[in-house]
Design brief:
- The complex is a heterodimer of chains A (591) and B (321).
- Chain A is an alpha+beta fold.
- Chain A is 25% helix and 19% strand.
- In chain A, helix 8 runs antiparallel to helix 10 and helix 14 packs antiparallel against helix 15.
- Chain A is globular and about 70 Å long.
- Chain B has 321 residues and is an all-alpha fold.
- Chain B contains twelve helices and no strands.
- The chains are: A alpha+beta (591), B mainly alpha (321).
- Chains A and B meet through helix 7, helix 9, helix 11 and strand 17 of A and loops of B.
């Protein structure tokens, strides 16, 4: 899923320890690393950072009000449309997908609305799920959740009025490609608690993982159907009117400002793995990131839902380590639009990658505490990371120097037909990014790299949601470079790491997450083949190869493999959701 | 003895005569201004500032600083925080590792360029409109005065923010003619400040045109254009100079404000307002990033104001302030 301004985190968090490269030295901080040797990756002389207690169980108690703050607001509080870290936090507290994960284990699916693990046919093409018979919708609906509600959720996912960003990538259901919102031939509900999915290809193992996404959360037809007739649907325009089957329901909502969750009286804790400690959850958004982060550090009970900006992160690391959590996340990259000049030329893209100071991206986000400089796309949390060359990557010369290498860049400029090494075409490069820290910094970093190759550039800073919805995720906007985009894998498989952001079949006109608009038939085919492999070792190798093809095609400048920093108040018990890389609303407690 | 005395008296009369010798208004003005030490100091500062702005690339080279847009990760610590003043970066670096010293110098260029050009445009429009309104009176005056009222009532800051955000989408407004950057900044600032000049000039012309010397030249059959350019305009030089120097610092501040709000000069071009804006979140750990551009801005505005006051005193000694 897309990540907000802040920091992505990856999935291997069981230990809160993280090696922090040098300069954790105590003496007053800032002067120690002015020498040029701060290239981050693999510096071994690190101290071990023991941050906040983020364990699932830390003696939480029931009751009280959980107070949250954030800089970013919500995009789509609709299980069908939501595809944003900030939205997920709310959706997972108020809706129940078929499967879920415990906060500390993103690799193991556990039944949520489903009664047990699914039955998968031998050919991997038929998946049968039984749902719990005793889960009820919140008032005023009050009825039992049925398999038809799940069926309708999937019909919505493929409804053009409900712009879902991943359904076509993760749910290869028979007949879904022709669906316009009506019944899908590949989904059957033999009875009120059984739902059967017929898939177009052997996708069984991956499919179950994708059933943890909010797109599989039941939606009652009688509530949503009339709203879904509008284009786009109005189901999320007043989320308090939705039906909820999770532990909480949305009591009040002020777009971009605040949201209040209260207990769902029809929720039965015996059917759910979520403890739902707090009685009430009050979340205020739209604060300045620096202010919110400082407030959180100074408060007893606040949880900040997006990451602290670099200067506050430094303060937190130096003075309030027990309120700082740092966990691996996903990756950040600067997507280069492969369909419009100048970056429809692969050599110009490689030149842009070579000219980029990737170390600067890392420092702009807060330095070694927030990740390492990336050399390819699959991050350290992925099983195929080592097969893809680990930290050193595949050895492409345009990714060798983390500070950028103009000589290599010039070589590729020449290969692209610019013998002087400077771009002389007339395309103006439009760079769009987030206007909240560190967005403006990253915009200027990418701009400096491109200017050094003679590109004329225009930079535009907008709120992160606007960046996704009106520019980078809106194919017709033809944005050339999106340097503040980030990706958290939707589940713990390389497919979720690479398919949506880089597969041509995942391109959709609006709400698109393939920001490079990359549609390379060879890469598409390689991904399809890799996803059908069941042998773990072969699968890892196949995905490493996909990563290699991608890295060579240079659809983006890999910036960093990020770790996610989060801050909390001094006494609140925050539980980190390692697969959403944020505080889990249903596990954290105010006391 | 008497002869000597007489001789002495004679020579004394002689010196007195040379002392009373007619001084041009310019000379009088310069003598008065020269005695005003504060204004002279401010004027010296402005001259220095202009020289520094013009010679910025040279100075940056001489001092051994880096160019203003050159980023340098080696000057950031491992948290990405900028480092303070040192021998390599005498004013410290910003959060991208750029040299604050050279950015402050180049910022002076932007500030002066915008302020001078915008003020120039505003003065020209203001003088033309004010003279036309004051001299011709009647319906011309009514129309022009109402236009000035409307512009004065216009929320210029909101207009600037609106223009900048609407026209920064894609390739700009009106086929790329309007997009945020220097030209729009100059137009907006000029638009905001011309009516002040216009009103003052109009008032002056209204009283001037009734003076005897104008009546006289009119009765001699002088044409309107002769009266305007040969009789009225020379008498407006003093107020024009004074108000120009008073509008200039306002426009320096206006430019800084617009850049602070992110709608002025676009990055990576250095501008004081923009530097102050990006220094806000890291002020407690990187004071140098806000202090140096801030001091430069304050000194510049102060200097222009002091010179403006001094000019007013010197050109208009009878006015008491």
């Amino acid at each position: 899923m897309r990540i907000p301004r802040a920091l992505p985190a990856a999935l291997l968090v069981s230990a809160t320890a993280l090696a922090v490269a040098a300069c954790g030295s105590s003496g007053g901080g800032s002067s120690s690393s002015t020498g040029g040797s701060s290239t981050s990756s693999s510096s071994s002389s690190g101290t071990t950072f023991k941050g906040a207690n983020i364990a699932v169980s830390q003696g939480q108690k029931k009751g009280g009000t959980l107070n949250l703050t954030s800089a970013e607001g919500w995009e789509h509080l609709d299980p069908g449309q939501g595809y944003f870290q900030i939205d997920y936090n709310v959706i997972y507290a108020v809706q129940r997908p078929l499967y879920g994960n415990m906060p500390d284990n993103g690799k193991k699916e556990i039944p949520d609305l489903a009664a047990g693990m699914p039955t998968i046919s031998k050919d991997g093409k038929t998946v049968t799920v039984h749902i719990k018979p005793n889960v009820k919708w919140s008032p005023p609906l009050n009825r039992t959740v049925t398999s038809d509600d799940v069926k309708y959720a999937f019909e919505r996912d493929f409804n053009p009025n409900v712009p879902n960003a991943y359904a076509s990538s993760y749910y290869p259901i028979v007949g879904s490609d022709k669906s316009k919102g009506g019944p899908i031939s590949g989904i059957q509900t033999p009875n009120k608690t059984t739902i059967v999915f017929h898939l177009t290809r052997n996708f069984g193992g991956t499919f179950v993982q994708s059933l943890t996404l909010p797109g599989s959360a039941a939606v009652p037809r009688e509530v949503a159907a009339s709203m879904d007739k509008k284009n786009p649907t109005v189901y999320d325009s007043d989320p308090t009117k939705q039906a909820f089957d999770g532990p909480y329901m949305i009591q009040s909502y002020n777009a971009g400002r605040s949201i209040t969750l209260v207990r769902n009286p029809n929720w039965d804790s015996s059917t759910d793995f979520r403890p739902a400690y707090a009685d009430k959850i009050v979340w205020k958004a739209g604060a300045d990131a620096n202010v919110a982060a400082r407030q959180t550090l100074d408060s007893p009970d606040l949880l900040m839902m997006d990451g602290p900006p670099a200067p506050v992160l430094k303060t937190a690391y130096q003075t309030k380590r027990s309120q700082l959590s740092v966990a691996p996340l996903g990756d950040y990259y600067a997507a280069l639009n492969t369909t419009v000049p100048p970056f429809n030329n692969v050599n110009l893209r490689r030149a842009a990658v070579a000219a980029a100071d990737r170390q600067a991206y890392l420092l702009a986000r807060g330095g070694t505490l927030v990740g390492t400089v990336a050399t390819h796309f699959l991050g350290p949390t992925d099983a195929a990371f080592n097969a893809a060359g680990g930290n050193n990557g595949f050895g492409f010369d345009f990714l060798k120097n983390p500070n950028g290498d103009l000589t290599v860049a010039k070589k590729y400029m020449k290969a692209a037909g610019y013998p002087s090494g400077k771009y002389t075409g007339n395309a103006n490069v439009l760079i769009v990014g987030s206007n909240s820290d560190p967005g403006p910094k990253e915009l200027q970093i990418v701009q400096a790299g491109l200017n050094s190759l003679g590109f004329k550039t225009t930079i535009k800073a907008v709120p992160q949601q606007t960046m996704y919805s009106k520019f980078c995720g809106y194919v017709k906007a033809h944005v050339n470079v999106c340097p503040t985009a980030g990706w958290i894998p939707d589940f713990s498989d390389a497919y979720a790491y690479l398919y949506v952001p880089f597969n041509g079949k995942a391109i959709i006109p609006v709400n698109n997450s393939n920001w490079s608009v990359l549609n390379d038939p060879k890469i598409n085919a390689a991904m399809d083949q890799a996803s059908a492999i069941t042998d773990p070792q072969k699968r890892i190798q196949a995905w490493a190869n996909v990563d290699k093809m991608l890295t060579s095609t240079a659809p983006a400048i890999p910036e960093i493999w990020a770790t996610n920093a989060l801050v909390k108040g001094s006494t609140v018990k925050g539980v980190l959701d390692t697969w959403n890389d944020d505080w889990d609303l249903s596990f954290s407690s105010p006391q | 003895m008497t002869g000597t005395i007489e001789f002495a008296r004679e020579s004394a009369t002689e010196t007195e005569v040379t002392g009373i010798e007619a001084r041009s208004p310019l000379e009088l003005f310069w003598r008065r201004l020269r005695d005003d030490r504060v204004s002279m100091a401010a004027l010296a500062f402005i001259v220095l500032l202009v020289l520094v702005a013009i010679a910025a690339p040279l100075i940056v080279k001489l001092v051994g600083a880096r160019p203003p847009n050159q980023q340098g990760t080696q000057y950031l610590d491992s948290f990405g925080s900028p480092t303070g003043p040192s021998s390599k970066n005498i004013f410290g670096v910003d959060e991208l590792g750029r040299d604050v010293f050279s950015r402050v110098l180049y910022g002076a260029r932007v500030s002066l360029e915008v302020a001078v050009v915008a003020t120039g445009v505003a003065v020209i429009i203001g003088v033309v409109v004010g003279m036309a309104a004051g001299f011709f009176r009647g319906w011309i005056d009514t129309v022009l005065s109402r236009i000035m009222d409307v512009v004065l009532a216009f929320p210029i800051l909101l207009l600037a923010i609106g223009l900048a955000s609407a026209c920064s989408l894609g390739r700009g407004c009106l086929g790329g003619t309007i997009k945020p950057g220097l030209p729009v900044l100059i137009i907006v600032i000029a638009l905001a400040s011309w009516p002040y000049i216009g009103r003052i000039i109009r008032g002056q012309v209204l009283s001037l045109r009734e003076k005897e010397f104008i009546e006289a030249s009119r009765s001699l059959g002088a044409s309107n254009s002769r009266i305007i350019f040969k009789e009225v305009l020379p008498n407006l030089v003093a107020p024009i100079i004074v108000y120009t120097t008073l509008v200039l610092p306002t426009n320096v501040l206006f430019e800084a404000a617009l850049s602070f709000l992110g709608v002025g000069v676009q990055p990576p071009t250095a501008s004081w307002g923009q530097m102050i804006a990006s220094a806000v979140p890291i002020f407690d750990s990187a004071w140098w990033y806000m202090v140096f551009p801030g001091v430069a801005l304050v000194l510049t505005v102060l200097a222009f104001n002091l010179v403006g006051d001094g000019l007013q005193d010197a050109l208009n000694p009878r006015s008491d302030r």
